[in-house]
Write a structure and sequence with these properties.
alpha+beta; 434 Repressor (Amino-terminal Domain); Beta-Lactamase; 5-stranded antiparallel β-sheet; 13 helices; 44% helix
C-alpha cells in the first residue's frame, strides 16, 4: 500500500469535483475547491474520520468493497479505478467483475435525475446504483446478496418479485429476462457469472430451462409498462434505457405522462419516501 500516492490521488480527485457533478447542492460559498471530505465519505458510505485518515496517510488498508465505493463516489474512470486499487495495495477487479464499477457517464446523468425513478443495471440485471425515488419505488437493492443481486435470478426463484407486474405481463417479462441473460452469456462466456446464473436457474426453474432452450437473444426493456405498488396501486410509466458503449450497463429512467394519475403518485412517493412506501413495508 502506497499511502502517499493514495492520499494524493484521493485529494486531487476530490478537489476536481464540484457538488453539482455528483448531484449535491452547491450550498454556501466554499473556501476550498471541490468536494468536502465529509461529502465524499457520505457518497462512499464510510465514516468521515476514516476517509480523512486516508488523505492523511494514517488509515489501515481499505477493503476492495471500500475502494469500489470510493471509485464510484469520485466518479473515476476504469483506468483511474485500477490505479486506486493498486495504490491501496489491492489487485484491480478482474474483467468478469468490472461491471460492478458504475460508468461515470451514467452516474453523471443519474445525479441530475432527482424527480423521477432512475437506476443503473448491469448486464446481469444487478442494480448497481439507484436514486432515492427508485429506492422508494422498488426498495433498497443493496439488501440482496449473491446470485439474488440479479433481478433475473429473483424473477425465477422468488414469487414476491413478480408482484410488481400485472399477471398478464408475466410471460412477456419472463421472455425478456431470459433474452437479456442470453445476450450477457454470449459476451461473458460459460465460465463467467452469467454462466453460473444460467446453470443455477436451469436446475431451479423449469420455466427458465424451457425459455433458455428457445435461444432468444436481446437486450430488451419495455418502452411502456405497468408497475404494481402495494400501496400506490398501478403505475403506468415509460421506460428509457441508456447503454454504455460496451453494453455492460444500462441507465433506466422511468417517467410518467405529465398531469397523469401516475405522475401525481410519483410526486407523493417523492414526498413521503421509501420508509413508508418501499415494497414489503407495512
Amino acid at each position: 500500500m502506497d499511502r502517499a500516492a493514495l492520499a494524493e490521488f484521493l485529494r486531487r480527485h476530490r478537489e476536481a469535483l464540484r457538488p453539482d457533478d455528483v448531484g449535491l447542492p452547491a450550498g454556501a460559498r466554499r473556501r476550498a475547491p471541490g468536494l468536502r471530505r465529509e461529502e465524499v465519505a457520505a457518497l462512499a458510505t464510510m465514516s468521515t474520520d476514516y476517509y480523512t485518515r486516508l488523505e492523511q496517510r494514517r488509515a489501515p488498508q481499505p477493503s476492495e468493497q471500500m475502494l469500489a465505493s470510493l471509485a464510484r463516489a469520485l466518479r473515476l474512470t476504469a483506468d483511474e479505478r485500477d490505479y486506486l486499487f493498486l495504490a491501496a495495495g489491492r489487485n484491480p477487479p478482474r474483467a468478469a467483475t468490472v461491471a460492478a464499477h458504475v460508468a461515470p457517464t451514467l452516474l453523471r446523468v443519474l445525479d441530475r435525475l432527482a424527480d423521477t425513478p432512475a437506476l443503473v443495471l448491469s448486464s446481469l440485471g444487478e442494480t448497481l446504483v439507484q436514486n432515492d425515488l427508485a429506492r422508494a419505488l422498488f426498495g433498497d437493492a443493496s439488501r440482496h446478496t449473491g446470485l439474488a443481486r440479479s433481478e433475473i435470478y429473483r424473477w425465477f426463484t422468488d414469487p414476491a418479485e413478480r408482484l410488481r407486474y400485472p399477471a398478464g405481463d408475466h410471460d412477456r417479462q419472463s421472455r425478456a429476462q431470459v433474452a437479456n441473460l442470453r445476450a450477457a452469456y454470449g459476451l461473458l462466456g460459460a465460465r463467467s457469472r452469467a454462466g453460473e446464473l444460467v446453470r443455477t436457474l436451469q436446475r431451479l426453474s423449469p420455466e427458465f430451462a424451457e425459455l433458455w432452450d428457445r435461444h432468444e437473444v436481446a437486450r430488451r426493456f419495455a418502452d411502456h409498462k405497468v408497475l404494481c405498488h402495494p400501496e400506490l396501486g398501478a403505475l403506468e410509466v415509460d421506460c428509457q434505457a441508456l447503454f454504455t458503449e460496451d453494453g455492460s450497463q444500462a441507465l433506466l429512467v422511468l417517467t410518467a405522462s405529465p398531469g397523469s394519475e401516475t405522475a401525481e403518485k410519483l410526486r407523493l412517493l417523492a414526498v413521503l419516501g421509501e420508509e413508508r412506501f418501499a415494497p414489503g413495508t407495512a
